[in-house]
Amino acid sequence: MPHVITQSCCSDASCVYACPVNCIHPTPDEPDFHTAEMLYIDPVECVDCGACVTACPVSAIKHDGALSPSESIFAELNAGFYAETRPRPLLAPVVPPLQVRAPAVPRVAIVGSGPAAIYAADEILTIPGARVRIYERLGRPYGLARFGVAPDHRRTRAVTRQFDAICADPRLELMTGVEIGTDLTHEQLLADNDAVIYAVGASADRALDIPGAELPGVASATAFVGWYNGHPDFAGQSFDLSHPRAVIVGNGNVALDVARILTIDPALLEDTDIAPQALDALHRSAIEEVLVVGRRGPAQSAFTVPELVGLCSTPGVDVVVAEQDLESLPDTDPRARILRNRTTQTGNRRIVLEYLQSPTAVLGDDAVRSVEFGRNELIAGDDGSPRVKPTGELHTVDAGLVLTSIGYRGLPVTGLPFDDGVVPNDAGRVTGVPATYVTGWIKRGPTGFIGTNKSCAQETVRSLVADYNSGRLA
Ligand SMILES: Cc1cc2nc3c(=O)[nH]c(=O)nc-3n(C[C@H](O)[C@H](O)[C@H](O)COP(=O)(O)OP(=O)(O)OC[C@H]3O[C@@H](n4cnc5c(N)ncnc54)[C@H](O)[C@@H]3O)c2cc1C
Ligand SMILES: NC(=O)c1ccc[n+]([C@@H]2O[C@H](COP(=O)([O-])OP(=O)(O)OC[C@H]3O[C@@H](n4cnc5c(N)ncnc54)[C@H](OP(=O)(O)O)[C@@H]3O)[C@@H](O)[C@H]2O)c1
Ligand code: SF4
Ligand code: SF4
User: Fold this and answer.
1) 257 within ligand 2 shell (Cβ under 6 A)
2) How far apart are CA 115 and CA 455, in angstroms?
3) pLDDT tens per residue, range 27-44
């Protein structure tokens, strides 16, 4: 029986290099690595050595005999990835080690301490003698790995243990509570270092620009996530959970996290890292139903399959989808199989996945009372991708809480160019600013899993080392 990758996979590819028979794909050098929702083990080639289990930082790999009933779909998903033959070498191509011109040793400052920063530091520290100083504006490190990942995703949150091990290297100094641009300037960092890498993430959220969006009871998923994860910027927030229905606009993985936290039995969150005031409020919550509303159709849902599996196996919570929406998905779509096989139970709280609707107004006098939605139809955009066109048909639903989960947005960094939420760069080199690099969400935009930032950081560090070796950082 082979090994199987399950839902907490954060795509860092550590297992790929541990596998003696190269049966875990896509590998970082393969074109579909950046679009894959997770990595998959080929059940025919796997020799069951278990090396990948030890390599995985989030315990995402199991022997297929050890899968729980809700995880059994992952055996099918792993095997399904290999339905078509994949040409592949006997071993995954090993990335050559970084080489710097001797006897020099680079000193690098990294701004931010999220996954992108830590993976960048890890890569730099492969150079003997290299030194790294990380500056983090918050009192605690690891960015969204600590303040974004949902508290009930215990295995994913365990990636911070790997980050602790990386930060324990005596050549790395972690300075928390230091904001670059306020407490120290870019010029001060450059005076002490050969280069500066910005890994500041994309902390702002996209705003919903509709009438009533300013009413009390409307908030961003960013604020709600920050509140339940104890992010200091959101410590003063409170959310009115006294109405039986909440609406979430957008249907990405963040929307699913928020819907699950709003509906899960709070007793199941007791032994997690959830902020105490959030746990207390969830215990008193009257919410019975959460609508997760996508502007496009079921086939364009932004959430990933592993997260849908997790949602559908949340105890005490029913996931509800209209019959016509289910029918619109082809039988071959794993989301159709997961949604058709789910069970419901009277008395459970409900998460309703709604489609082809855009909010047009939030209604209420001194707080949210209801949301007006316009129905959409799908049309082909200029590039052929499905876009929405309002049909003009409107309806309203009562709700006491509206959370917008429509994506994140980078903020400008003092002294760096900025364009549409990211810092313009070429393989991590900031355009027009010497000795300055970016990695993570501020480099490529707010998409991808924790591990996606590893290959992103490796690319940036390789650019930095090439510049160092050619004397461009002198
Ligand atoms: C709500 C949410 C849940 C998620 N859950 C998962 C999950 O379960 N699994 C998964 O694989 N991926 C998940 N992701 C995606 C993952 O968290 C991101 O891919 C990853 O965190 C991006 O890394 P980053 O280092 O670019 O940014 P961040 O993690 O945002 O880190 C940026 C850091 O920079 C610091 N900073 C910013 N400005 C400054 C400054 N001027 N000076 C000093 N420090 C500064 C910030 O405080 C922060 O610590 C989630 C994302 C979100 C939003
Ligand atoms: N467990 C995990 O692995 C995990 C958990 C959380 C986050 N993440 C990752 O973190 C990244 C960010 O997640 P996310 O959920 O914030 O973003 P996302 O996946 O980009 O989803 C954004 C959602 O907002 C919708 N949207 C955007 N603009 C809108 C508008 N004006 N009106 C209505 N809807 C709008 C999008 O719809 P359209 O598709 O129509 O544009 C989409 O449904 C993703 O890569 C995600 O996978 C991973
Ligand atoms: S068990 Fe061994 S052979 Fe199978 S995927 Fe893991 S590392 Fe590869
Ligand atoms: S988290 Fe990393 S090591 Fe674990 S299964 Fe996913 S890609 Fe492999």
Assistant:
1) yes
2) 11
3) 999 999 999 999 999 999
Nearest residue CA, atom 7 of ligand 3?
Answer: 19
In the prediction, which pLDDT does 18 show? 95
pLDDT in tens, 423-460: 999 999 999 999 999 999 999 999 999 999 999 999 99
Nearest C-alpha to atom 2 of ligand 3 is from which residue? 49
Domain with CATH 3.30.70.20 in the chain: 3-80
pLDDT of residue 342: 85
Q: Please say whether the structural domain 205-404 has been given the CATH code 3.50.50.60.
A: yes
- At the top level of CATH, which class does the domain 107-203+410-469 belong to? alpha beta
- Kindly give the number of the ligand 3 atom that is closest to the alpha carbon of 22: 8
Tens-place pLDDT, residues 293-344? 999 999 999 999 999 999 999 999 999 999 999 999 999 999 999 999 888 8
Residue 134, ligand 2, Cβ within 6 A:
no
Query: Which atom of ligand 2 approaches the CA of 153 most closely?
Result: 1
Residues of the chain with CATH 3.40.50.720: 107-203+410-469
Task: Specify the domain boundaries for CATH 3.50.50.60 within the chain.
Answer: 205-404
Q: Ligand 4: residues within 6 Å at CB?
A: 5, 9-15, 39, 55-56, 58, 60-61, 451
How much distance in Å is there from the Cα of 60 to the middle of ligand 4?
6
Determine the residue type at 158: A
Nearest atom, ligand 2, residue 408 CA: 16
Nearest listed ligand to the Cα of residue 452: 1
pLDDT of 102 above 70: no
Residue bearing the CA closest to ligand 1, atom 7:
149
**Considering the chain, what is the average pLDDT of its residues?**
95
Q: What is the CATH number of domain 3-80?
A: 3.30.70.20
Provide residues with CB under 6 Å of ligand 3.
Answer: 3, 18-19, 21, 23-24, 41, 46-52
Closest Cα to atom 3, ligand 4: which residue?
A: 56
Whether the CB of 46 sits within 6 Å of ligand 1: no
Ligand nearest to the CA of 373: 2
